[in-house]
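pipeline/complex-builder :: batch 7 item 3
reading input block
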Amino acid sequence: MHASQCPDGGGPPGAWDVLVIGGGPIGLVTAWRAAQRGLRTALADPSPGGGAARVAAGMLAPVTELHYGEEALLALNLASARRFPAFTAELEEASGRDTGYRACGTLAVALDSDDRAHLSELHQLQLRCGLEATWLSGRECRRLEPMLAPGVRGGLRVDGDHQTDPRRLTQALLTAGERAGVELLRQRAVRLLTAGGRATGAQLADGTRVSAGQTVLAAGSHSGTLAGVPEEVLPPVRPVKGQLLRLRVPGPYRPFLSRTVRAVVRGTPVYLVPRENGELVVGATTEELGFDTTVTAGGVYQLLRDAHELVPGVTELPLVETCAGLRPGSPDNAPLLGPTALPGLHLATGHHRNGVLLTPLTGEVLAELLTGGRVPDEAIPFSPARFTPALQEQSL
Amino acid sequence: MHASQCPDGGGPPGAWDVLVIGGGPIGLVTAWRAAQRGLRTALADPSPGGGAARVAAGMLAPVTELHYGEEALLALNLASARRFPAFTAELEEASGRDTGYRACGTLAVALDSDDRAHLSELHQLQLRCGLEATWLSGRECRRLEPMLAPGVRGGLRVDGDHQTDPRRLTQALLTAGERAGVELLRQRAVRLLTAGGRATGAQLADGTRVSAGQTVLAAGSHSGTLAGVPEEVLPPVRPVKGQLLRLRVPGPYRPFLSRTVRAVVRGTPVYLVPRENGELVVGATTEELGFDTTVTAGGVYQLLRDAHELVPGVTELPLVETCAGLRPGSPDNAPLLGPTALPGLHLATGHHRNGVLLTPLTGEVLAELLTGGRVPDEAIPFSPARFTPALQEQSL
């Protein structure tokens, strides 16, 4: 334990300035950024880097993932996507590790006339939002990506939607955090500690009580279940299961695909993300089954069937891994970033499909919050206050 | 090294009576039976029990696997199937291990009218061969196995086609062999040794030369590639790749299936083998790709698609494992059992799809051959001599 350096003076002697609960990319970036600001920071996770990010595909796709009515989220996603190149450079420098960032662009295609109509509507929405996306004929799509199915009827070329490798990203964040002085407590936080109407840290699985001036709950899909968090503060986060496959593109088949390729097949999205190292990620199911991370015959079947319809040649590729993870879903599919009604407790959770994309911006937002600074404008709508009317009247 | 106990006196001093090359069920049963007969026996394999049997489903299905023109093979398969209950009892007693033998029967079903016509022809052939098989309507099939697809058009109930668990079988054979005195040489045999016009043992990967009065080549799909075997004696065995899935039936879904269920879907056979322990094996592809044991997206896709068509509820089950193995194929799909033109070298290979089924009979045949006894009549047509006309004129 270290002497308190808590900027608001709220921590008892012997406390950390900041305790981050959760070692996914969101918790790791928060801890790294906090430590960079001079805060004495600890992070609790039984296996940092081992959560949903191990399963995630790492698409950085604010444009192709645009949905009606989510313009505020679009602004947030774009703000983080803009930061990705500089963020990657800084992180790779700080950690000495490659993160697999690849400015490869994305091609979203339509396999039938219904899909084409939907994709065309998405294109109109993108243009209204001022985004760059180019409509291509089926022939033009196949010229870009010759492995595409002959039946592709058209597509959207989005050169700004890139990718990173979430497994390498979390490893780099782990190293950068440790180098910046983050203390990793390799245990699960089992209970939030409170005293005098404020959060004061957390109790770990072995019974250790970790005191901290400020606590950040960044436990992904588990954020809604931490004991000791007052009911009215508990984030409305639920697990949304995703199953995903990893194929390998053997040398003679490369590049196979040169950018992310995605489509909606029979109403279900499927995407193929080709990494520089020859890995080809195929994702992902979306299932509301609680805390279930079972890989099922049906999940794998759906992914293979849809990927095969989109890129028939995938059947030739080795299937290297099947896995399932839990996205932290929120009621409006957007994250909860900011203070709660319980002083000393911040949230950085509920990122749903966008956790990897939002890593740079989340780190910045939380660092500002933890040091009493000013959060970027784009993040203001995503205060947890939007789900707690009483708090909503206070300013962020 | 031990003093020679070789019954034909052919081994030099310091030699084993018998060296078995290959530690799959065929090699293991040969070694066990040889040791039981008092022969000093060694078996060379880098990881005994680790070959194709780890992938095999373990169907004991001479009746449902009957093919036109393979009546001699049918007699061999039936002879081994008849031995399975007593063999299992003896092996489980000798090893103290359960082998997962299950007298569950098999149901072969038709999913469309073409399939039904083919299945009906198979039924006529079975009846002509004096086999027991009962024709059932689609409704009767679903009464037996309620998880079957509603579209099932009819089926054949074969109560005599059972199953065993090849992984447990090989473990039991390993234990029984060691208890009977088989020496396991945990290395690959890289070259057959010959001297004075006869086989005299083998050289191992580390250079050790193992001398033996008689050598049995039981190396499965690798049997056709052992260095040092004269060209005219090398068995015409090739690898036939099979991919296979293991699902798990969670408690609430059991029994799910109560017997082996199989069908031909779009010309491709698929089978589901339910184990007592809740494992459900789905197999298998048949691919001629040389020594390739890659699990591919296409193989897994085909198995899941066909299993789903046969038993739609499989999609709910956890997918636990995907694997691929190499069957030892032979020109007539039948094994090579017996002496070669090279004195001192016997073959026990080329079992193709029937290695597990033929384990009991192969053990008996090889034990007789190694001790100068009389092989069972059913095995006589399967001498390697049938592929070497010069030898064919000699008696077995």
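note: The two ends of chain A are 31 Å apart (CA to CA).
queue -> next item
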